[in-house]
Amino acid sequence: MLHRACEAGQGPSSGHRKLPWAQTIIAEAGGQVAAAADPCHGKCSALDHQGTGPFAGLPSPMRVGRYHSLCTPTDGLPDRFIVDAALDGMVLAIRDDEAAQLGLQFHPESILTPRGSRLVAAMLDWANARQRHLGAALAA
């Protein structure tokens, strides 16, 4: 796990939790987290993303493995979050550049996410760059 000041959030089963998914990040910031209308457990989905943040350089759409029963609607986020990917009105990837936080609503480590290792590497690169940026800002 990365230092709290620069967290790349990804972890098993319960969606966006800070330790390590983003639903906790969203809930702590006053966003909505609710039961999904259609829970997904072991489902492969084609994810369209913006090609931003850790998705830069990855093809869109890309296949991802989803295992969740909770979700955040795209209109249920505080303004500080950037939505990098959404599907059927649900947030599937967010980031907060100022707080250096990332969150996913799918499993990059799943066999159902063929490019997951590239995404995890990109998440770590993003987190390391944000940590350097924040460290330089604190030192100034």
From TrEMBL:
UniProt keyword list: Glutamine amidotransferase, Lyase
Transmembrane stretches, start-end: none
GO cellular component, one term: cytosol
Keyword check for Cell inner membrane: no
Stretches assigned to the Glutamine amidotransferase domain: 23-121
Listed InterPro entries: Anth_synth/Amidotransfase, Class_I_gatase-like, GATASE, TrpG/PapA_dom
Reactions listed under catalytic activity: chorismate + L-glutamine = anthranilate + pyruvate + L-glutamate + H(+)
Molecular function via GO: anthranilate phosphoribosyltransferase activity; anthranilate synthase activity
Enzyme type, top EC level: lyase
Signal peptide bounds: none
EC number(s) stated in the UniProt entry for this protein: 4.1.3.27
Any one of the GO BP annotations: phenazine biosynthetic process
Keyword Plastid: no
Protein name: anthranilate synthase
Organism in which the protein naturally occurs: Sphingomonas xanthus
Species lineage: Bacteria, Pseudomonadati, Pseudomonadota, Alphaproteobacteria, Sphingomonadales
